Amino acid sequence: MKYLIINGSPHKGNTWKVAKSAMENIKKLDSESTFQEIHLLDLKLPFCLGCSNCFRKGDEFCPHKDIMTEAINKINWADGVFVLSTTYNCRETALLKNFLDHLNYILHRPLWFMKKALVITTVGGFGGNSTIKSISGTLSGMGFNKCYGLSIRTISWNAYNITPAKQKKID
Q1: What is the distance of C-alpha 53 from the center of its chain?
Q2: pLDDT for the residue numbered 156
Q3: Strand pairing class (116-123; 80-84)
Q4: Which of these ranges, 29-43, 113-127, 154-168, has the smallest mean pLDDT?
Q5: Could you give the dihedral angle defined by the CA atoms of residues 61, 63, 69 and 70, in that order, rounded to the nearest 10 degrees?
Q6: 87 — phi, psi (to 5°)?
Q7: CB neighbours (10 Å) of residue 99?
């Protein structure tokens, strides 16, 4: 199977460590699985302007279509999508929210009915389930037929080491 990792966190910290562990598990189960990555920080995607061109005229009229077309093509390529976001104030990061805002028109024309998603978040205290619910709700509206959620409480500043109990949850 083909997987796309969308890293909505501003760096490769705790959430990335958890995602890497999940990817390693998939590779053990299916050695032919392939992964591509999108790190939203690297896209340098400007804020969605709310111009509604994508909704009214088509996504090719988005002022940021050059960036978004490549990302959409990668989602189309994948069988499954990992969506990563650190939990900030019980929600997804601004990077991920902005990316999803650029895809908002798909909520009116869902198209990814054959896709599955794994939403992964790490949180220092509470709010991970709210983050998963927010992201999964948007993905479901875009057509994803199943959204799995994995929230891991890490309580560290990017120095998290996966405990055996958390590893079992990831597995």
Answers
A1: 24
A2: 78
A3: parallel
A4: 154-168
A5: 160
A6: -85, 120
A7: 23
Long-range own/partner contacts, residues 58-64 (CB < 8 A, 24 or more apart): 59/105, 62/102, 64/102
pLDDT digit string (tens) for 41-89? 999 999 999 999 998 999 999 999 999 999 999 999 999 999 999 999 9
Instruction: With H, G, I as helix, E, B as strand and everything else as coil, classify residue 21.
Output: helix
CA dihedral 118, 160, 38, 116 (to 10 degrees): 0
pLDDT at 158 over 80: no
User: In sequence order, what are the beta bridge partners of 123?
Assistant: 153
> Token pair of 57, please?
């005229």
Taking a C-beta distance cutoff of 8 angstroms, is the pair 122, 87 a contact? yes
